[in-house]
Amino acid sequence: MDNGGFCDDNYQSGSSDDELVDISEVTVDFSEDVPPLDRDYSAGKTHKNGIGLHCCTPKLMDLLDDTVPGIGTYEDFNTIDWVREKSKDRDRHREIANKSKQSTVALLFSISDAFSGWLLMLLIGLMSGALAGGIDIAAHWMTDLKEGVCLNGFWFNHEHCCWASNETTFQERDKCPQWKSWAELMVGVSEGPGLYVVNYFMYVCWALLFAFLAVILVRAFAPYACGSGIPEIKTILSGFIIRGYLGKWTLIIKTITLVLAVSSGLSLGKEGPLVHVACCCANILCHFFTKYRRNEAKKREVLSAASAVGVSVAFGAPIGGVLFSLEEVSYYFPLKTLWRSFFAALVAAFTLRSINPFGNSRLVLFYVEFHTPWHLLELIPFVLLGIFGGLWGAFFIRANIAWCRLRKNTSLGHYPVLEVVVVTLLTALLAFPIEYTKMSSSELISELFNDCGLLDSSKLCDYSGNSGGTSGSVNATAANGLGARLAGPGLYTAMWQLALALVLKMVFTVVTFGMKVPSGLFIPSMAVGAIAGRLLGVCMEQLAIRHHERDIFRGWCSPGADCITPGLYAMVGAAACLGGVTRMTVSLVVIMFELTGGLEYIVPLMAAAMTSKWVADALGRESIYEAHIRLNGYPFLEAKEEFRHKTLATDVMRPRRGDPPVSVLTESGMTVEEVERLIADTTYSGFPVVISQQSPRLVGFVLRRDLVISLENARRHQEGVVSMSPILFTECDPPMSPSAPPAVKLRSILDLSPFTVTVHTAMEIVVDIFRKLGLRQCLVIQNGRLLGIITKKDILKHMAQMANRDPDSILFN
Asked: Main subcellular localization, coarse class (predicted)?
């Protein structure tokens, strides 16, 4: 999406109150929140300004027909007017409905207009599902490429390469003659220290190459492709405009670099960026449908549905995706959007299932099914996992925000390529020696979620009763069936490796999230929780086995059945840590339920998710996404944050005491030169219109952008317009001499019903009005006289000041 300018050099938009913000290395200028432009609903208002007035016939502004290009549109880094956009859509729908009764062609057009929304959802689901399948396949292949290559075809990953081999065993299913490590290919070494050293070197080299390509592509072609994208998506859905953030170049580069970043082995995931990818698809497809291309509010309904699609293809959880969009990212979510989100998520999941990227007929790599019931007393360790998840969430948010602030405020931020390369180098050097950090995060979660079976050769399934470490279930033929579940040497080795992996994952996730590469947070957070959960699950299992005769564990263990399922603890821990970081509850439980396919484990998940949220909220009420929104200075008015202070509109409005009076236009009596001078001397994005300077009775509000465009259009196309031509916002033409230049009539761009409050209105009510109506500003009046203005920025600064935060941190860096 290109941000074309709308005015010449004499009238460049800016704002003295507007600060600069740095988004992905791009310096942009926040324009002051501009007021609504609504249609002229006034009809036949009479002015008694003198004898001889010539009243023109009042004409309603046709919002469906933009006579002047640019009128009614928005600048980059501005907030949309929800009220105006919804009014435009109602007028458009009303006109189509009226015309449909007049002819068959109009009726067919009405039907196609109603069907276009569902067609758009279908296309978004198909496109997002196809891209997600391609990303999964490419990331899996490139991750395995760091370890070796398939001789049958370099395009096969390790698992697919060994599928057709007849020389694999259950103990060594990952080894086959067709798959060669880099050491075997380069130096012909199949064992010994040489094998380890060469493979170590190649692993680090491939990781550095992937990460370097990712950060170079992002910086060169699409700076907006970095990060998770969810904080920006939340801000865009609240009505903010960031042109290019959902454009075609961002989509292309984010898709490519997401594969590279995940394959590099960095502690990040692809699930968050997939939401950004799906929203890019939606934004691009919206341009083919007029009613979505021309209406920013309708477009945001589509983007809300696209957010659900992103989670649907990320986790294979269509219902969880819809709830995620409703609970976490959407600002305006009507019932119609709920239905369409469900349909789009269904189509996306079906498309991904048809592609079958993992070859297991599942939508995700770590799909599991548990068969052992849980015990009531296990709620205690589940709650402990919830406490750990809440503590981890609070720690991660504070540590990551501190690191990101350090990056912004020091020279570290000037070297993003070097930062990515150094972090990748350290990650690869420390990850390779440890089995559980060397594998990808998705494979690690799959390993930790796994319920040990007869054919498992993992160290996590090495129990003393297993022959050769290949069986994780109880040996029913043993004299003591419970002894078969005692931990073996492989399990002890896996435990200390997991403990070390937990520390490394926590540290690397803190420094990785926020770098200039696509980086999701879902999978790293789930990996941290899964490791902690598996450690606790194994401990509980061994405790129950060794003390099975005690009353507390009596009935838990019986020959032929598992006492406790450690994989369930890993799943609960993953949900707890993800909930602590994102503060999701309902959508999180549904996503985890769709991953496991078992209703039986909803109660443990609910207990852990709620405990995690309570603990994390006690230490800090912001989720990681809201914290990054505040860090970047986006104009986001959080609906969850309560305003409990007893202040009034007069305490927040501008101008403040001692400031110059508010700049206004009069409905008549000003010339083109005077208005142009006011525009050039001020940087406000809109001007109140009053009757006169002596009688500041409010008439309406006009946007700076619309005013500039209208004046330029009048100079170009209206004959006789000069600097001394009068500006009229009235319906009636005042008496003028025949030699006077023609007037410029601008009543059609005047909003005659701006939202107003009085000086005594409580700020609690004002904040609610801004949240529920999506306002950008409201005017403060007293007995009809204009006194000041309150913008969204003023409210955000006031709320920051009341919370003992720096108010100058709002809307700028």
From this structure: membrane
